[in-house]
């Protein structure tokens, strides 16, 4: 064994135990990581560093914190320390959990229903696990938000299909459009699921591990499904906007017709009165 690989193994063996928990927390819209750089930093993009002798933290600017090798109390304490760095903190945070196991006798793999088995617990491998968990937890929240918009637009679509009309008030339709646009804006945020993690540029031999993580969490498939639903949401918002415009045009036409009718009646009345005089 070379001196570099031996030192790397020695430095990473103290990061986490042979079997440990990795947990991703989606805590806010944005997370300010500036000023958190330390002497024991493991990576800068994303920012990763040791929390204690056994734990590792990986912070993503789009609001996700991945903690590996910490117990529940240590996790809560660490997250509380980040409160002032959170912008748009969520009242309810989403979580994704995985079990990571050291398996030096075999290559990196994820057996069905089993833990994530890694040849070594090197910082690069742990960061890739963190990347997959972070993207998965973001997708989970966005999937839930998109589903809620579908739940509110479905009654409008059903009524339009059955009766050809929409009975909702202008205010309720505008609220529905606003919800659709807000979710579309949030889901199209700074996290790019298809984007290649920076660590792979320096460690291309780990691409197979990341590909397996992508397959395990179905990142690409879920992202494509989400994009398709976002397209439907955009179309729904456009349809609702068109309905409002149609209603407004119809209302204006009715007003114009009534004004013309009123003017005709006034003219007839004036003519009739003139004949009597």
What does this structure look like?
- This protein is of the alpha+beta class.
- Helix content is 55%, strand content 18%.
- It has seven helices and seven strands, in the order H-E-E-E-E-E-H-E-E-H-H-H-H-H.
- It has helices at 3-13, 72-80, 123-163, 170-187, 199-202, 207-217, 219-276, and strands at residues 19-31, 41-44, 47-50, 56-60, 64-68, 86-102, 116-118.
- A seven-stranded mixed beta sheet has the order 2-3-4-5-1-6-7, covered by helices on one side.
- Strand 3 (47-50) and strand 4 form a beta hairpin.
- Helix 3 (123-163) packs antiparallel against helix 4 and helix 3 (123-163) packs parallel to helix 6.
- It is elongated.
- The chain starts with a helix and ends with a helix.
In short:
With 277 residues, the protein is of the alpha+beta class.
Keywords:
277 residues, alpha+beta, 7-stranded mixed β-sheet, 7 helices, elongated, disordered N terminus
List the helices and strands and how they pair.
Elements: H1 3-13, E1 19-31, E2 41-44, E3 47-50, E4 56-60, E5 64-68, H2 72-80, E6 86-102, E7 116-118, H3 123-163, H4 170-187, H5 199-202, H6 207-217, H7 219-276
Parallel strand pairs: 6-7
Antiparallel strand pairs: 1-5, 1-6, 2-3, 3-4, 4-5
Helix pairs in contact: 3-4, 3-6, 3-7, 4-7
Number of strands: 7
Q: What is the makeup of the main sheet?
A: 7 strands, mixed
Structural class, from secondary structure content? alpha+beta
Helix/strand order, N-terminal first: HEEEEEHEEHHHHH
Low-confidence stretches: 1-14
For the terminal residues, how far apart are their CA atoms?
Answer: 121 Å
The proportion of strand residues reads 15-25%
Fraction in helix: 40-55%
What overall geometry do the principal axes of the alpha carbons give? elongated
Number of helices: 7
Q: Averaged pLDDT, please?
A: 83
Report the C-alpha radius of gyration, rounded. Answer: 29 Å
Lateral arrangement of strands in the main beta sheet: 2-3-4-5-1-6-7
